[in-house]
TrEMBL record:
Residues that span the membrane, as ranges: 18-39, 51-70, 91-117, 137-158, 165-183, 227-245
Annotated organism of origin: Streptoalloteichus tenebrarius (strain ATCC 17920 / DSM 40477 / JCM 4838 / CBS 697.72 / NBRC 16177 / NCIMB 11028 / NRRL B-12390 / A12253. 1 / ISP 5477)
The name this protein goes by in its record: ABC-2 type transport system permease protein
Record bears the keyword DNA damage: no
Record's keyword annotation contains Cytoplasm: no
Coiled coil: none
Key words of the record: Membrane, Transmembrane, Transmembrane helix
Amino acid sequence: MNLLAVERIKLFSTRSPWWSMLAALVLMLGMSTLFAAVLEPGALEVAATQVGYDLALMVVMVMATLAVTTEYRFNTIKVSFQATPRRSAVLLAKTVVVAVLAGLLGEIAAFGSWGLARLVRPEADLRIDTAAEWRQVAGVGLVWALGAVLAVAVGALLRQTAGAVTLLLVYALLVESLVGLIPKVGQNIRRWLPFTHANHFVRGGGQPAEGGQENALSLPFGPWGSLAYFAGVVLVILVLALVTVNRRDA
């Protein structure tokens, strides 16, 4: 518990988390409100109120990356490791703090976006009645929490803000989409990429396609299976980060 408290204090001792949280909220709430305002009421569904969640997730991952790389930049990570020789405990405590913050922020942004959409379009049917609709809103916090864990792990592996942020953003925003353009094999590869599954969890509503080849974006799992797959990928990278942090010099 002491480690968690220390990491919480360290995280909020700088301005970057505050600005990042504000930017993520403004981006998601603004995009969702704008989308609700321009879309016809009959076409506005619960899932559409979360239209800005993926771009806001990028801001959250930048915040999570900075939580690690800033310590390496100013060499404060050495003090942390000297105070707590168990380096894995330090990194895990930081991961838990950032993930909980990202998860709570995601829930606030998701339900805030849904609420604003109802205010802008009171005539639209935006009641949350089904399990799929609850997942499409409440699931944003889960994906943001896992995205934050991934960003912490990548930050610990690369230790440089520019490299870690560039890798995360370019991969999430460009690489997975561009992979699908590769002739013949592109879509088959994309079916197994992590952020494709994260998006499927939040935005998907159906079951896995039979044979997995019904269309270019058919996935092997349903929404919850996609979340488990995304979590598994994140866990593998986190374990790799823990091993690397313990083996190399701070």
